[in-house]
Specification:
globular; single chain; four-stranded antiparallel beta sheet; 1 helix; 5% helix; mainly beta
Length: 395
């Protein structure tokens, strides 16, 4: 009888484990464009006010948007709204409806030359025409920091939208040393051709790469020193190193990409690619919200080949976020692609990797429900593969 009870208990445990196992993600690929040069930056927003999310792309010499046809498999009309803004490449894009009219505002980072820490870098606001499929009027900011690299529209605690701009290096930096990187935020004036109010949020890091805006009270910047946590207290910006570069294997060696996610119990986690353009995908839990607190670090893989794109979102409808990571490879014949990592428990102690693309040399990616079926799809831009691809969520 005791042996039979043990057998039944084992079977019940095994059955429960099978039932609890989350489903594998499944996707159908559709390439929207096979003429992408670099695919530096993607953004998702409603461009024309039809209440459908469109795709915007900052490519090397052009800024394009792709009109959502409203159903899978259909063609996405492509429109060039700006080109040849500067002598060097565009590098980033920010698109967001910040005035509530149902149509997005667009800003661009350009004049990309990471080796020039004195004179490179440009920021443009694009003024749309009545027909948004035509060329937009670029308004160049008169003064910016060099090596403009990343930007996003961010709604802060004052319920106002600001354009946060992150350079790669500090002014005059050599080999990542010298002046700190000025993290700047700009507020759109009523007359966009007038001076934009700007503030320096911090200038203590060197060689930054990307930032996370999901929680405005604790905006995080990834870079050479680790992760800088920004907080606004009594109208003043304060920052501290929440995750520190330990400079050795087994610890943080600098951060390239970072994105925030939530477990099923709404406990937060932070996914990172380490170091910059690195090989490790790491997850941090117990995130510090004030100086002196420490987070727990777990490496999911050290096999990324130039990891360069990251997003967190619930692709599987589990009530918790999965991690989507993309890598671009260093050589034409290198391994490239995208993978989805799924937590197999409530605390993120066990994870499962699912390779979902082996063809896109992923430079940047975004998540959005493009067809209104309630499931997040993956949008990826490929560098060496020269494609813009949707991975339609089949779950």
């Amino acid at each position: 009888m005791l042996a039979q009870m043990k057998t039944l208990l084992l079977l019940a445990t095994a059955t429960a484990a099978v039932i609890a196992a989350p489903p594998e993600p499944k996707f159908t690929a559709q390439d929207l464009d096979r003429t992408v040069k670099i695919g530096y930056g993607t953004a998702i927003a409603d461009v024309d006010g039809d209440k459908l999310p469109d795709i915007l792309l900052a490519d090397a010499r052009q800024i394009r948007w792709y009109k959502n046809p409203g159903k899978r498999g259909a063609d996405w009309p492509r429109y060039v709204i700006a080109e040849e803004l500067t002598k060097n490449d565009n590098v980033c894009i920010a698109a967001q409806d910040i005035d509530g009219d149902g149509k997005c505002e667009v800003a661009i980072g350009a004049e990309w030359n990471p080796g020039d820490t004195e004179k490179s870098g440009a920021v443009f606001y694009l003024i749309p025409p009545a027909d948004r499929t035509q060329k937009w009027e670029p308004v160049k900011f008169p003064s910016v920091e060099p090596t403009t690299h990343r930007m996003k529209w961010v709604e802060f605690g004052d319920k106002q939208w600001w354009l946060v701009v992150l350079p790669l290096h500090g002014r005059g930096n050599k080999n990542g040393e010298g002046a700190g990187v000025k993290v700047l935020r700009y507020q759109k004036p009523e007359d966009v051709k007038a001076k934009w109010k700007s503030e320096v949020m911090s200038d203590s890091m060197h060689a930054t790469h990307n930032f996370e805006r999901r929680d405005f009270e604790k905006m995080k910047v990834g870079g050479r020193e680790g992760i800088l946590v920004h907080r606004q207290i009594d109208g003043q910006w304060q920052s501290f190193l929440g995750i520190r570069n330990e400079g050795k294997p087994g610890g943080c060696r600098g951060v390239g990409e970072l994105r925030a996610g939530l477990f099923a119990d709404k406990a937060p986690f932070l996914a990172t690619i380490e170091p910059m353009h690195g090989n490790e995908l790491a997850v941090y839990t117990g995130l510090p919200i004030q100086q002196g607190e420490e987070a727990s670090r777990r490496v999911l893989t050290d096999k990324l080949n130039q990891g360069h794109a990251l997003a967190c979102g619930d692709l599987l409808g589990l009530g918790s976020d999965q991690i989507t990571v993309g890598w671009r490879g260093a050589k034409p014949d290198d391994s490239v692609g995208l993978a989805v990592w799924t937590a197999l428990d409530d605390k993120g102690e066990q994870w499962r990797e699912t390779i979902v693309d082996k063809e896109t040399a992923c430079e940047d990616l975004a998540l959005a429900d493009l067809d209104g079926d309630g499931k997040l799809d993956i949008i990826a831009a490929g560098r060496a593969s020269h494609n813009l691809r949707i991975l339609w969520n089949d779950r």
